[in-house]
Amino acid sequence: MIQYYFDWSVITRNWGLFLEALALGLGLAVVSLLIGSVIGLAAAYARVSGKRWLSGPVWAYVEIIRCTPLLLLIFFVYFGLPEFGIYFLDKTQSFILTLSLYAGAYMSEVFRAGLASIPKQYVEAAKAIGMRPWQRQRWVVLPVMFRITLPSISNNLISLFKDTSLAAAIAIPELTFVARQINANTFRVMEVWLTASVLYLATAWLLATLLRQVERRYATIR
Amino acid sequence: MLDFSFAPGTFWFEAWVARFSLLNGLWVTMSASALTILFATLFGVAMGVALAYGWWWLRLLARIYVDFMRGIPILVLILFTYYGLSLFGINLPAYWAGVIALSAFATAHIAETLRGAVESVPAGQMEAGKAIGLRFSQRLRYVILPQALRRMLPPWVNTGLEVVKGTTLLSIIGVVELLLTNQQIVARNYLIVDFYLFAGLLYLMINATIAWLGARLERRFSYLRY
User: Fold this and answer.
1) Which residues of chain A have a CB within 8 Å of the CB of B193?
2) How many other β-carbons are positioned within 10 Å of the β-carbon of residue B216?
3) How many of the other CB atoms lie within 10 Å of CB of B155?
4) What per-residue confidence (pLDDT) applies to A188?
5) CA A87 vs CA A80, A82, A90, B192: distances in Å
6) How many CA atoms lie within 13 A of B88 on its CB side?
7) Which part of the chain is the ABC transmembrane type-1 domain (chain B) (predicted)?
């Protein structure tokens, strides 16, 4: 066992950098969750549509994404898409694209379960009072489904936030990348990684607490 | 793109040239996954029992551990372990640092699912065990765990899939597993799409096999519920 002297000045000197990186990671997660939710919702409707030519490809999309490592997807999109003539994505955009596709697969499962759990009577009641198909979805099915799936959505947001750490692999300056850089520059291993861990933990915990408030707010039917 | 001629610069030729490194990468990925799943299952079950039945201080410690592990990204844990262990004079190769980090991470997940499974066993089972005079270890061994482990099977298989996917992160600390092998090959011949698709296909096959084995296990150990 060697002697180790903690020197927290490395952290205080770079505190702004840490916070910026944390905000970037959080932003990436939120944007990807939003895009992923749109993809997921469309995919979920395709899955329950009962049309084989719609649900088949969507099933393949979901299974492929869920069985492939995220890091591989990141590299494939970042390095592979230019081979298909798509040059205009910078690394942040390409990461958002990857994480959105990834989130879309997971969200589609969440939404599919949500759609399946809505009692049939709700839709029948909406029909009975003369709502059009899209009105039934907009005013009856979606609000109920949103409430049911809210806990899963928040779980997904937190795990997406943790997945943004993989953006470090393509040099996006989020928390893991910055921590690694400071670690390499200063060799303050313990301070740097403890700080990064605590920042991730605190943010995940804060997100969970906040989202639980939102869940409680929307759980009551007024 | 996919081209079936066998000349330098085509996928099949390059894959054949690199066959030994690809096999090695596949082996590293599979052995790291298997070791991680083994360690994580052993420690995870022990920790799950501690979470459910431990003394309050043991439960508290296990709870802190599990929440810490579940709150930080696995990549941070891998880097922390890799750079941190050497501070304590433990100079492990990157492979072992990675396996330790992945195991520590998966242990927390398995502990949490086992706790859930144990708590979903009706309390009457424990009481019935007490009533016929079984000691705590016997109740655990013959009554609670056989039921809890069956319920834990589906999430356990999911954790296995996560572990296989997680081994790709070992490439970041320089373990030459399947993904890094493919990256090295791509760096040599620029067949980006071919080799990443190939790697993806291999991961898909590994995971499909695990999922299939899991489904078989579930069928094998399922029993009629009363």
Assistant:
1) 76, 80, 83-84
2) 10
3) 16
4) 87
5) 10, 5, 8, 14
6) 9
7) 26-214
Q: Which two tokens stand for residue A117?
A: 């759990």
Helix axes A15-48, A189-219, angle to 10 degrees: 40
| A211 in a structural domain | yes
Number of domains in chain A: 1
How far apart are alpha carbons B61 and B66 in whole angstroms? 9
Residues in chain A with CB shorter than 8 Å from the CB of B72 are 162, 196-197, 200-201, 204
Q: Is A167 helix (H, G, I), strand (E, B) or coil?
A: helix
CB A35 within 8 A of CB A100: yes
- pLDDT at position B219 is 85
pLDDT, tens digit (0-9, with 9 covering 90-100), for A161-173: 999 999 999 999 9
ipTM of this complex > 0.95? no
Please report whether residue A1 resides in a domain. Answer: no
Percent of chain B with pLDDT strictly greater than 90: 64
Tokens of B211: 């999922």
- Which residues of chain B from 154 to 183 reach within 8 Å of chain A, CB to CB? 161, 164-169, 171-172, 179, 183
Angle between helices A15-48 and A52-67 (to 10 degrees): 150
For A47-66, write each residue's pLDDT tens digit. 888 888 989 999 999 999 98
A76 falls within a domain: yes
Shortest CA distance from A70: residue in chain B? B165
Whether residue A117 lies inside any domain: the answer is yes
Q: Which of B76, B171, B200 sits opposite A165 (nearest CB)?
A: B76
Q: Does residue B1 surpass a pLDDT of 90?
A: no
Q: Model pTM?
A: 0.89
Superfamily name and number for B32-192:
MetI-like (1.10.3720.10)
Query: Closest-CA residue in chain B for A201?
Result: B71
CATH number at residue A72: 1.10.3720.10
> What parts of chain A have a pLDDT lower than 50?
none
Check: CB of residue A74 under 8 Å from CB of residue A170.
yes
pLDDT bracket for residue B226 (50, 70, 90): very low
Q: How many CB atoms lie within 10 A of CB A147?
A: 15
What are the tens digits of pLDDT across the range B27-54? 999 999 999 999 999 999 999 999 999 8
Q: What is the DSSP string of B35-65?
A: HHHHHHHHHHHHHHHHHHHS-HHHHHHHHHH
| Helical ranges in chain A per DSSP H | 9-13, 15-48, 52-67, 70-75, 91-116, 120-128, 133-135, 142-163, 175-186, 189-219
